């Protein structure tokens, strides 16, 4: 008889109940995979990993309370044996770069078919990377950040919804200087307005 394959123990973190149940059912159907826990919130990821010692955590990027990228970074610090594969409903090169910066090994669209997802988990469990090839190429070839540190400070506050007066007060700048920074940000990114600049910078992984 061939030797029995070692089960890969999986922690699933997904806030949408139907999606979470679908992930659990799909992964449990694989002979070498088993889901040992599923949670709906990013705050529960590290405690569950410390208690149950999974091999791989499969997590949505957009978890409530604590997002998947932050949870991945905390897992690397608190439970480094647990490797991470992140799923995203709207994957983009910036997310890929941030995922690898958070020590995730895998990054796939949440719409991925069951077979590639299972294969991705096997790769991650063995210490290899698993990422959609088009996303990987886009992440590697995306432009470097053209914004200065001060322009990034202004843009981060704009991304939080702060008006020019609020940004000026927080950064000890004049309102005119803030507006000049925002104008340069929009010029450098090719954005139509500040919201578009936030979107472009986020998708590029600069924010």
Automatic annotation (TrEMBL):
Keyword Metal-binding: no
Domain named Response regulatory: residues: 9-125
Keyword Phosphoprotein: yes
InterPro entries attached to this UniProt entry: CheY-like_superfamily, NreC/VraR/RcsB-like_REC, Sig_transdc_resp-reg_C-effctor, Sig_transdc_resp-reg_receiver, Tscrpt_reg_LuxR_C, WalR-like
Annotated ranges, domain HTH luxR-type: 140-205
PROSITE patterns, per the entry: HTH_LUXR_1, HTH_LUXR_2, RESPONSE_REGULATORY
Entry keywords, A to Z: DNA-binding, Phosphoprotein
Record-listed 4-aspartylphosphate modification sites: 60
Entry protein name: LuxR C-terminal-related transcriptional regulator
Organism: Sphaerisporangium aureirubrum
């Amino acid at each position: 008889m061939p030797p029995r394959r070692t089960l890969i123990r999986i922690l699933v973190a997904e806030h949408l109940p139907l999606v979470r149940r679908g992930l659990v059912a799909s992964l449990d159907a694989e002979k070498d995979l088993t889901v040992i826990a599923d949670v709906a919130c990013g705050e529960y990821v590290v405690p569950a990993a410390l208690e149950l010692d999974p091999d791989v955590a499969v997590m949505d990027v957009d978890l409530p309370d604590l997002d998947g990228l932050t949870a991945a970074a905390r897992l690397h610090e608190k439970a480094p044996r647990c490797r991470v594969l992140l799923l995203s409903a709207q994957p983009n090169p910036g997310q890929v770069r941030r995922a690898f910066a958070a020590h995730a090994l895998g990054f796939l669209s949440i719409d991925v078919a069951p077979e590639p997802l299972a294969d991705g988990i096997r790769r991650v469990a063995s210490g290899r990377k698993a990422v959609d090839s088009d996303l990987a190429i886009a992440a590697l070839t995306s432009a470097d950040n053209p914004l200065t540190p001060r322009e990034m400070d202004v843009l981060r506050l704009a991304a939080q919804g702060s008006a020019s007066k609020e940004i000026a007060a927080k950064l000890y700048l004049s309102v005119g200087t803030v507006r000049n920074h925002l104008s340069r940000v929009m010029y450098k990114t090719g954005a139509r307005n500040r919201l578009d600049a936030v979107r472009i910078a986020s998708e590029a992984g600069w924010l």
